[in-house]
Specification:
The structure is a single chain. With 143 residues, the chain is an all-alpha fold. The protein has one domain. The relative contact order is 0.15.
Length: 143
C-alpha cells in the first residue's frame, strides 16, 4: 500500500513566472524598451509555454507514479517515462536537455490538457502575446 504524497501543491504561478522571466531575459526583451515588439513577445511566450507544459506534465506524472517510498522529485517521473518508452538507461536519459525532452515528448505534450489552475496562471500573458490559439488546445473546454 502506497503512502500519500505529503508534498505541497505544485506552485504553478511561481513556475510560470520563473519560466517567463528566464525566456524574457534570454531573448533580451526589456519590457520598458521593447514593449511594442509583438514578435519577440510571441517568441518568448511560446517558448515559456512549452517549458510550462513540460513542468505541468512532469507534475502530473510525479503524482501518478509516486509511491510512499519514492516521490520522484524534479524531472524523475518524466525521466522514468523516457526510460520505459525508449528502453534507455537512467544515465542516458539524464544527459538529455530540456529541449531534447520536449522534442521527444512532442506528441504527448501536444495533447496535454493543463490543470485548470495552471491554465489560468498563464492565460493572461498568452492573451497579451496574441497566443490564445496556442494555449487553447491545452485548456479543458467548458462544455
Amino acid at each position: 500500500m502506497a503512502a500519500t504524497d505529503e508534498r505541497k501543491p505544485f506552485p504553478y504561478y511561481r513556475v510560470w513566472d520563473e519560466l517567463l522571466s528566464e525566456e524574457m531575459r534570454e531573448s533580451g526583451f526589456d519590457p520598458d524598451r521593447n514593449f511594442g515588439d509583438k514578435e519577440r513577445l510571441k517568441a518568448f511566450s511560446a517558448r515559456a509555454l512549452k517549458r510550462f507544459l513540460l513542468a505541468c506534465y512532469g507534475e502530473q506524472e510525479r503524482v501518478r507514479r509516486g509511491v510512499g517510498w519514492e516521490h520522484l522529485e524534479d524531472r524523475a517521473a518524466v525521466d522514468l517515462e523516457l526510460c520505459e518508452r525508449f528502453n534507455w538507461t537512467p544515465a542516458e536519459v539524464r544527459k538529455l536537455t530540456e529541449d531534447d525532452v520536449i522534442f521527444l515528448l512532442h506528441d504527448t505534450l501536444a495533447g496535454f490538457i493543463l490543470p485548470a489552475e495552471a491554465a489560468g496562471v498563464c492565460a493572461g500573458e498568452m492573451n497579451h502575446a496574441g497566443l490564445n490559439h496556442v494555449l487553447a488546445p491545452h485548456v479543458k473546454s467548458q462544455e
